[in-house]
Amino acid sequence: MSPESILAITGAVVAIGGATVILMRKLPKRIKTTHYRRKWRELQRMCGNKQTWPDAIVGADKLLDDVLKKRRKPGKKMGERMVAAQKSFTNNDAIWKAHKLADHIAHSEEEVKLKEDDVKDSLVAFREALRDLGAI
Q1: 27-42 b/e (C-beta count within 10 Å ≥ 16 → b)
Q2: Alpha carbon distance 42, 35 (integer Å)
Q3: Using one digit for the tens of pLDDT, what is the confidence trace for 33-86?
Q4: CA–CA gap between residue 124 and residue 82 (Å, rounded)
């Protein structure tokens, strides 16, 4: 075999390998639904006590952010990742409202008083978003 042929074959192998690596990085990671279902059940148990409602909402928000990262949605912050994923959500407005409530709770200096309906609506929105992304 001539040196040119060897060089051409080596170049083709390197190009194919590089293209494969790039494609693999672009594809979303496989989501382990059992992990997310278990986490979701833990969050649901928190709903039995009013004292843990804020933790349940913030935890659901973090869980969604984790799934968005696993699905390789671009963005440095969760809001940017949610914008990238908004076509995946069946109820985009509800998930944004839930995220804003979680953000308010997480960044509030004082205890946030929550209404039962707001908690239910937020958790339903988070659950639906997690289903839309194939996590639960």
Answers
A1: eeeebeeeebeebbee
A2: 11
A3: 999 999 999 999 999 999 999 999 999 999 999 999 999 999 999 999 999 999
A4: 17
**Rounded Cα–Cα distance for residues 61 and 97 (Å):** 11
Q: How is residue 90 annotated by DSSP?
A: S
- Token pair for 9: 């074959």
Q: Are 135 and 36 in contact (CB under 8 A)?
A: yes
CATH number of this structure's domain 31-132: 1.20.120
Q: What are phi and psi of 4, to 5 degrees?
A: -65, -40
Please tell me the distance from the alpha carbon of residue 70 to that of residue 4, in angstroms, as a whole number.
43
Q: Average pLDDT over the chain, rounded to whole?
A: 89
